[in-house]
Specification:
It is a single chain. This protein is α+β, with helices and mostly antiparallel strands. It is about 45% helix and about 15% strand. It is built from five helices and three strands. Strands 2-1-3 form a three-stranded mixed sheet. It is globular and about 35 Å long. The protein starts with 17 loop residues before the first strand and ends with a helix.
């Protein structure tokens, strides 16, 4: 499903209806539809279980930012040696097959 939904939409208050709660106590918001189109797990959590926040305290901010940006753009430009393992793990946990295949 990689598509370019527009990186400029990341963090936009009008689109950020899904919160990723990080271990540092930080909350990153993203659009639930964009994230659901990329991840059947997120789709199930938001559509069927009606969750609007996800505990992502296993992951650092840089990895979550990269995961969200990849979901919005279909690219892994922010991937680096420091966040590779966590982004790869997120790809597996949330079943983002195209992301896992790119890694």
């Amino acid at each position: 499903v990689p598509a370019d939904f527009g990186k400029h939409h990341i963090g936009a208050p009008s689109h950020g209806n899904l919160a990723f709660n990080l271990r540092e106590g930080v909350q990153i918001k993203a659009n639930s539809i964009i994230m659901s189109l990329n991840s059947p797990v997120i789709d199930d959590l938001t559509t069927n279980l009606h969750l609007m926040s996800l505990e992502a305290d296993d992951f650092g901010r840089e990895a979550v930012d990269c995961f969200i940006e990849a979901s919005y753009t279909g690219e892994v430009d922010a991937l680096n040696n420091g966040n590779f393992r966590e982004v790869n793990k997120m790809g597996h946990v949330f079943k983002v097959n195209w992301l896992v295949a790119k890694m």
